[in-house]
C-alpha cells in the first residue's frame, strides 16, 4: 500500500489549489492508505482539513459532512480517544437518522459506536448498537454483502466478551463464510475473521483449533502488513497466549517479544507494551522454575543410580 501514497500525492500536486469534491476523494483515499499503515496521526491531519472543506462546500447537515465525521471518529478510536470518537459518531447519527436513503450509512454509525462501547467495556450498550446495525443491514443488503460480514464479526466479539461462546462462534463463522466467498485469499479481513474464531476456540479451551486459525491469520498478516503494524502485534500476542496454554513456553515468549517490539513503537499502545513485558517476565520465571525442577530430577536419578550400584 505504501507505494500508492506518492501516486495520490502526485495527483494532489497536479490538481493544484482547486477546492471541490474530487479533492476530497483524493484525500480520503490518502487517508485510507495512511490508516491501513497505522499512520493515524497523518490520517487525522488530512481528515481535519477535509472536514473543514466538506463544511465549506456542502454545509453541516448533509451526509457528505457525516462521512467526514465518521472518518475522523474512526481514527480517534484507533488513537484511544474514545469520547471524542463517540461525540463525532453521534453528530453523524443526527444527520443520518430518519432518512431512508441513508439507512446503510446509519448502520455504519451504529456499528462504529458499538465498537467504541466494546473498547470501553460497556458491553450491553455495545450489543444494543450492534443489533441495530445488524437489523438495518440484514433488511437492505444482499446476504453476501461485505458490510454484513462486518456486522456479524462485531456481534461475535461482543458475545465473546459476554462469555456466550457458542453464539460468538456462530456469528464469527457467518462472517468468515461471507469473507471467503467474496474476498481474495490474502485480504486482511480474512485474517481478522480467522483471528476472531481463534479467540473463541481459545476461550473454549480448544487450543489446537485456536492455533490452527491463529496460524491462518498470521500467514495473511505477515504477507500483507508492514512488519511494525500494530495489527500484526495483536496476532503475535494471541499466538503467545495459545502457545503458553499448550505448555510451549519458549515459543510463547518469542511471539510475545515480537508483539512487544511493535507495541513499544506506538505511544498509544503503552498499556499493551506493559502487559507484554509482564507476560514475558512471567514466562521467564516459569522457564527458570521448570529448569530447576528438571535439574533436581536429574540429581535425584543420579543418586538413585549410585545407590543401586
Mind sketching the topology for me?
Elements (H helix, E strand, L loop, with lengths): L4 H11 L5 H16 L3 H19 L4 H16 L3 H15 L6 H17 L3 H18 L5 H16 L3 H18 L5 H16 L3 H18 L5 H16 L3 H15 L6 H39 L1
Helix pairs in contact: 1-2, 2-3, 3-4, 4-5, 4-6, 5-6, 6-7, 6-8, 7-8, 8-9, 8-10, 9-10, 10-11, 11-12, 12-13, 13-14
Structure write-up:
It is a single chain. The protein is mainly alpha-helical and 309 residues long. Among the domains are: 1-96, Serine Threonine Protein Phosphatase 5, Tetratricopeptide repeat, CATH 1.25.40.10; 227-309. It has 14 helices and no strands. It is globular.
Put the structure in a nutshell.
With 309 residues, the protein is mostly helical. It contains 14 helices and no strands. Helices cover 81% and strands 0% of the residues.
Amino acid at each position: 500500500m505504501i507505494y500508492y501514497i506518492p501516486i495520490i500525492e502526485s495527483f494532489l500536486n497536479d490538481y493544484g489549489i482547486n477546492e471541490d469534491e474530487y479533492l476530497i476523494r483524493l484525500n480520503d483515499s490518502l487517508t485510507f492508505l495512511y490508516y491501513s499503515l497505522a499512520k493515524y496521526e497523518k490520517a487525522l491531519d488530512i481528515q481535519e482539513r477535509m472536514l473543514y472543506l466538506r463544511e465549506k462546500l456542502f454545509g453541516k447537515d448533509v451526509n457528505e459532512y457525516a462521512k467526514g465525521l465518521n472518518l475522523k471518529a474512526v481514527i480517534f478510536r484507533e488513537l484511544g480517544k474514545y469520547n471524542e470518537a463517540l461525540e463525532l459518531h453521534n453528530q453523524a447519527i443526527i444527520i443520518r437518522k430518519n432518512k431512508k436513503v441513508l439507512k446503510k450509512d446509519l448502520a455504519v454509525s451504529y456499528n462504529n459506536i458499538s465498537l467504541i462501547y466494546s473498547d470501553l467495556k460497556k458491553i450491553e450498550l455495545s450489543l444494543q448498537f450492534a443489533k441495530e446495525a445488524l437489523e438495518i443491514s440484514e433488511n437492505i443488503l444482499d446476504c453476501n454483502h461485505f458490510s454484513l460480514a462486518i456486522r456479524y464479526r462485531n456481534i461475535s466479539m461482543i458475545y465473546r466478551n459476554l462469555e456466550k461462546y457458542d453464539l460468538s462462534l456462530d456469528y464469527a463463522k457467518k462472517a468468515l463464510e461471507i469473507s471467503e466467498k467474496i474476498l481474495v485469499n490474502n485480504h486482511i479481513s480474512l485474517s481478522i475473521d480467522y483471528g476472531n474464531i481463534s479467540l473463541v476456540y481459545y476461550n473454549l479451551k480448544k487450543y489446537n483449533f485456536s492455533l490452527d486459525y491463529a496460524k491462518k491469520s498470521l500467514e495473511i498478516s505477515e504477507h500483507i502488513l508492514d512488519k511494525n503494524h500494530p495489527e500484526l502485534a495483536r496476532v503475535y500476542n494471541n499466538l503467545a497466549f495459545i502457545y503458553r496454554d499448550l505448555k510451549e513456553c519458549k515459543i510463547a515468549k518469542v511471539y510475545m517479544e515480537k508483539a512487544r517490539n511493535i507495541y513499544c513503537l506506538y505511544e498509544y499502545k503503552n498499556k499493551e507494551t506493559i502487559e507484554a513485558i509482564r507476560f514475558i517476565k512471567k514466562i521467564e520465571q516459569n522457564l527458570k522454575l521448570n529448569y530447576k525442577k528438571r535439574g533436581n530430577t536429574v540429581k535425584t536419578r543420579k543418586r538413585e543410580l549410585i545407590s543401586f550400584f
